[in-house]
Each structure stands twice: as structure tokens, then as C-alpha cells.
Fold these 4 entries.
Entry 1:
Amino acid sequence: MTGETTPPFGWARAAAAGLTFRPITEADLPFLARLYASTRTEELALTDWSEARKAAFLQMQFDAQHAHYQEHYRDADFLVVARAGEPIGRLYLARWRREHRIVDVAFLPGHRTQGLGTGLMLDLLEEAARAGKSTTIHVEKFNPAQRFYRRLGFVAIGGTGAYDLMERAASSLP
């Protein structure tokens, strides 16, 4: 996929919401780090760390996560999600022989709880089901997003450490 494009693979809900996608570049790293930090705000609010310490921790964690994803999901699509030309999220998706793995999906706070994620997820689930594949994602055990994934038909099938591996069977189209 090159340049910004309309949603691929017949993602009708994403298209209807005005979402576009493009591969990440080095120039996107500051945005992606800011997006990552926005997903940890509530967690870090519980600490008594200074803002500088929080920022350093978040940058270190983002760098480690980014390096891990790049190394372990080499064939994945690493996409910036945009709306009206502005980056608002990320979608990292690996299409493997037997399953589609959502490596990561996140939106900036101002774009959450508007149905964008639900529409995108339904498009992803439909694509995988049409290919006869399940969809999987790792979700932290105490992440409130567990409820979201359960509503979409995901069930925990295993996990390690702080994460559950959740799966939505191919046979259940959204």
C-alpha cells in the first residue's frame, strides 16, 4: 500500500466513516509515540512521577514496543489511520495463513467512543471470515477493552503474563 488510500479490502464501514490508511514512515514516529502515550494516561495518573519521568518512561516503552513489532511482525501492515487528512490512530495487522492477527489498534482520545473502532473492527472481522480465518488479538487482562472485544464475539483462548489471547472464530460473520 503506498500513499494515503481509501480503506482497503472492501472495508465499507471504515470508508463510510471517512477513514483512510497509509503505511507508517519514520516521520510518523512522533505521532505514534504521542498516540501510544495517550493509551497509558489513566495508568500513569496513578503514579506520583513527575511529568518528565512519565514522558521518559512512555518514550522508552514506545521505542521498545515499536522495535518488538517491527522485529516480530515483519510481514504485517503497519498503518496510520487518518480522517479528513489528519492522523487519528494506528492499525497494525498481520494476515497469516490460518488467522488475521490484530497486532495493535488505537485511536487518539478525541476519536474514541464514536463508533470508528467498532466499524473498523467489524470490517476486519468480515475480511477474515470471508477468507475462512479467525481473528486474534492480545489484550491486557485488566484492560476495559476486553468488554469491547467480547461484545464483538471474541473469547479468551490463552495468554501469557499480563495478556489474554482473544479470538473471534471465522465462522461467525459480524
Entry 2:
Amino acid sequence: MRHVDASSIVHAWDTYPVAQIPRLWEWLQRKITEPDLHMSRVAFGEVQHVSPDCATWLAAAGIALLDITDDVTGEALRLKRALGIEGENYHPRGVDENDLIIVATARIWTAPLLSEEALQPTLPPQRARYKIPAVCGAQGIRCSRFIDFMKESREVF
């Protein structure tokens, strides 16, 4: 099972239009139905905000939406402390509260995360400036991009 971030599914929606690449979206629907793909309610809310049509498609496909449980909240707080973020002082170039909940959900569900957030080959000295892939890497969570998910499937669209 994989956990998908809003950035990844919106990237797919914008890059691979359903009308032009319907077999890709049929495959994604199968992945959702199996279920091999799920998303946190926080990430789904972000999708609704930036791409309502994509959110409508996800809902119709039956994407499993994972709630913010006590375990997820506790893990998000642990991540926040590990990054040295105090209170609401998130660094503008790092993760925010939603990102921490998304990463925490992936960790609690022991699921790899799909995210299009920028890779940071050289990690910034301030951990508060880490983006999702760096936070995942520091926590032993596999993080990859949508294109990697497609390639690993070996499907032909």
C-alpha cells in the first residue's frame, strides 16, 4: 500500500490528462480499489482546494481517506520536535503542519509516500527547512515521485 501526497496526485492530474491517457487513470482506479493507494484526509483537503476536479475523480474512484488518529498526531508532534520546530514557527522553506501529518500518516501505516516536493540533495543545516522527502529519508520512510510509481508498475499505458 502507498500513501499519496496532494502534490503527487495533482501533478499526475495536471501532467497526464484523463481524456488523453485514460488507461493510466483506469490503472490508478484499480490501485485505489485494490487498495494499493490511499491518502490522508489532510492531503485530500489540499487536493479539493487546488484541484476540485481531481478531488471529485478521487472520491468517485473510492480513495481510502485516513483520519488523523491519536497515533498520527503523536507521530506528527514527534517529527516536529525532531525538526526543531517550536510552536507555530514553521520555516517557509520547510514542511508545514499538514506535511507533518501526511508524513506521520505514512509512518503509522508503514506505507511508502508519493510526493512531488523538491528533493534536497544537500540537506540544509536547519532541520526545520527539510521538505517532505528529506523528512521521510531521516525517518526511514521511502518517498518517491509519481513517475517512479508508474515505472515500478511496469504497466504500459
Entry 3:
Amino acid sequence: MKMLKKTFSLQDAIQNKRLALFYQPRVSAETLKPTGAEALLRWQEDEGQWSSVPDLHRLSCDEFAELWKWKLGQVKEALNLIREQCGYYSQGVPFVVSLNLSHKQLHSYEWATRLLRMLAESDAPNECLEIELTEHHGLRDLIVEESSFEMAREAGVCLTLDDFPEGGQSFLRLAQFKFDKVKIDRSLVPTAADSAKVWLTKKELLRGLLAIIDRMGASSVIEGIENELHYKFLSGLPVHEWQGYYWGKAMPLAELLLMVPLNEVSANSRRAERVGLEPRMPQ
């Protein structure tokens, strides 16, 4: 008889180390090198497999606050490891880790104050962190939201609108808040079930959305690039970054570190370690 999966409990998952952040890389549309990664929450089921957390939206506001504190602790460790093994920058461009923010956290400033405290404790450059906001539940307290966004933006944290244009509030969000980056939802990427006409139509829709994003002064990401056909068909679009299975699925931090481009200092350090020398700073 097939065993039923255990109901998700945040307290149980944290206490028994059944929660983890996996990281899905993003790549530059220009160089095709990793530029950052989205931190995605994973839960270890009773069978030992890692999967998305079931019914995450059912958590209370207090539970989301607890989860946010845990996630910030994990990202702090990740940023420190990136610094130690790879350096924060490659060719002068920061490697950015992004965290998803729940709409249930927007009723207070706590998420922003905790975020800035974590950055101060980790010594990571603030531009190495990105906050992704998805809103499918309508606008809440705009005054609190805007103020907390400004706290993060003034500190140099990148603010991203996720899943654009999914949800009835996406265009309103884009108009009311200045986002640094906008991620176009995977639903607009053609699928094998789509006709040739739909493929062409979706490509033109993507082109139009990218033009809107550009006029708003934000950079752009297209999600859901899952194979070479997707990439070749859409590669002519004026997008800044790609994300999807074609570039890598969500993976443990140790695997991500193997993909992070080295900066000059880190590259010299690794070469020195291989030959048993002390690392030297470049002249």
C-alpha cells in the first residue's frame, strides 16, 4: 500500500533540517555566463526526496516571518561561501542571489529590516542580493509596501517583479513601483503543444513586453527556457538574462558554486592552491 505523504509543518521542517534552499542559475543573454541564481525553497519528504513545499500559501503571516528569518540565514551562508570560493564579482559584475518575498510579509517593515541586518552581518555587497515580488492577491497597504521597498532600494538591493504579466495587478505594480528588474513568466514561452502560429505570436508578445520593460528603465529576464529550441527561437529578442532548465535546474549550493564565474583574485587563489602556494593579490 502506498504511504501518504506527511503534511508539511514548518516547525518540523526547520527543526529536523528538512528544509533547504536550492539555486536555479540565470545567465547573461550576451555572454551566456551565470550572473546570479534564484533561491528556491525545497522540502525533504518522508521518502527522502526533495520537492517544492506543498500549500506554502497556507502559512500564516507569523510563519512567513519565521520562514523569512530562516531563509535569510541560509542566504547569508551562501553569500559568504560565494565570497570565499568565487568572489562576489566576475569582470566587475556582481553575482546576484535572489529571494522570493511573500505578499503576506508586506503589511510591515520587518522583512526589510531583517534583510538589511543580514547584509550587515554577512559583509556582502548589498547589490549581490535581489528581492523578487509576486502579487496575485491584490494590493494591500501601499504606504507600508512602498516605504519598505525604498528601505531596500536605498541600501542598493535589487527589486524585481516576478511572473510578469501574470496576475491582475502586474501592470499596476509596474506603474506604481520602480522595479530594477522584471521577470517575464514562463507561460509566454512557446511549448511543444503550441502551433507554429502561436510560437510566432508569443515571440511578438515577448518583444512587446520587453519594450515596455525597457521604457520603464528596468532590466529583463525571460523564464522557462527549457531546451535549445527555445533558446534559438527567442535568442534574437532584446532581453538581458535567461532562466530555465536549459541553463540548469534548481540545485544545491555546492553544485551552483561550480558554475559561478571566478573573478581575477579568486582565479589566482585557486591556481595557487593547486600548486601549494600562498594566494597573491594581482598587481
Entry 4:
Amino acid sequence: MRNKLQLFLLLFVGCIDYEFHPPDAKPPGGDDTAPSIVDTHDSAPPPPTDPVAVCDVTPSPIAPPWEAATWIGENSYDPNGEAIISYNWTLVSSPAGSTATMPVGGSNRPDFVPEMAGDYVGQLIVSNASGDVSEPCTATLKSIPAENLWIEMYWEHINDDMDLHLVAPGGSYNNLNTDCYYANCTPSMGWIYNLDWGTPGYDGDNPSLDLDDIMAAGPENINILDPQTNGTYTVIVHDYQGSTSDVYGANNVTVNIYLNGSLTWTDTRAISGDNTVNEFAEIDWSSGTVTSL
């Protein structure tokens, strides 16, 4: 009984020593010290009021110089429901040396054929019946050679005929069997000479000069779909006799060499002197390397 009494007294005394402090009541009309919530998110942009150009190009990538693509603008629209009456397509960027132009037409522009490897950028601007004009829209067409060996050439001044040559491993310049050039290697002449390089009877390792230019400034190209010869090819540029223009003097000639679809080597050289033969590079197909000459 005494123990219970002592325990009761201890608890009672502890309660007396503890001071309870109720929370302060907020006075009526007092300042609110709680932190305010600020919306830091950017507000949504206003909806467009001008027409909107929507552009694309398909298919992409494609292979030069025969495959074609279509620039597509038919999905352009006016947010106010007005009719789109003008589709202004322009080619704003293309590889150096290219002569390709944007096809004429309406919202879509089919049959665009890139003759060189690289990127082609088309731009579309549309306008509505009220004369309101859209912001530009751009689309990029990638032109990638299908052939594993692709050589292209262009030059600076017109009326100075430059000829591209590719000499087979172990071959010689101007040899109709071992040198691919305008006399024996174009689509119109190739069937006559029927160059058979590499594996006998296999067409995939034979060369073709698909583009040959005379009066302008190129481009020209020689390609082999699937080279089979583990040897060294030689790239040569011939300034055709009687074509040199005395007005310009030296002519800057550029040669690009693509191996397996990628640009591996490029060089620009000033060529002067009629009927000159200029060795540019050697291609070691077995090692996949290009050496300047």
C-alpha cells in the first residue's frame, strides 16, 4: 500500500513541474507568414495566327545519280481556316559542285534527283489568301552512294572540259581495257567495250562513268558497286585538249572519293595547261585507304 502511495505522489509532483504552453492563437487580421507558392513554369506559347509551313522529303536517304525524292508540303495549314494559296519551295543548300535545282510544282515537288553525294536542304514558305506568310520550314535530303567505290569531280570555270579517269590495278592510262573514262565507260559506250575488272563475268565489280560533262563545270562521277580487286586504283584528271579557256587561267578542280558510302578523301587543285594529265590519288581497296599523288 505504501509503495502505491509513493508512486502516486511522484507522478503528481511530475505533473505539477511540467508547464504546458498552448500554441499562440493567430490574431484576427494578422500577417500571413506562410511562404507563398510561385508558379515558375513558362506559360504556354500563344497559338499561331499566321499560316504554318509543314515540310518533309521522302524517301531519304537516296542514292545518286538516278534515284528521286519528293519534297512534301501538303500538310501545311492555316490556323484560322484560310486556304493556303502559295507554296514557295527553294533549295537553300546543296553539296559544292551540284547543279540540282528544286522542281517546279505546287505543295509537293516530286522527281528531285541529286547527282552528287551529300546533304540537300529544301525550304518551304507558305502564304494564305490574305497574304499572311509563314515562318520557313526546312527538310534535309541525304544523298548517299549505293556503290562501295564512288568518285566525283567538279571544277570552277565552264568551257574548260575536265575528264575523270579511273585506272584499274595494274592498268595504264588511256588503255581501253584498264582505264575507265568517256571513251569506253559511259552507259552508252560501256556495252561496246564491256570492261571486265576483278572477278570474270561479275558485273558488280566493273566501273561505270555515269555522268560526263563537257561544256559546264561538272559534275562527273565514276563508280564501282562492289570492287573485288585487292589492288590499287588510280584517279586521274585530264584537261581535254583544245578546251582550255584563256580567260580564266588556272581552273580549280575538286575530286571527292567515297568508300562504302562515306567521304574518305577530297582535294582541290589548280590545273593549268591544255592537255595535261594530273594524277590525284591512289585507292588501296584492300586496306580501304586513299593516298594523295
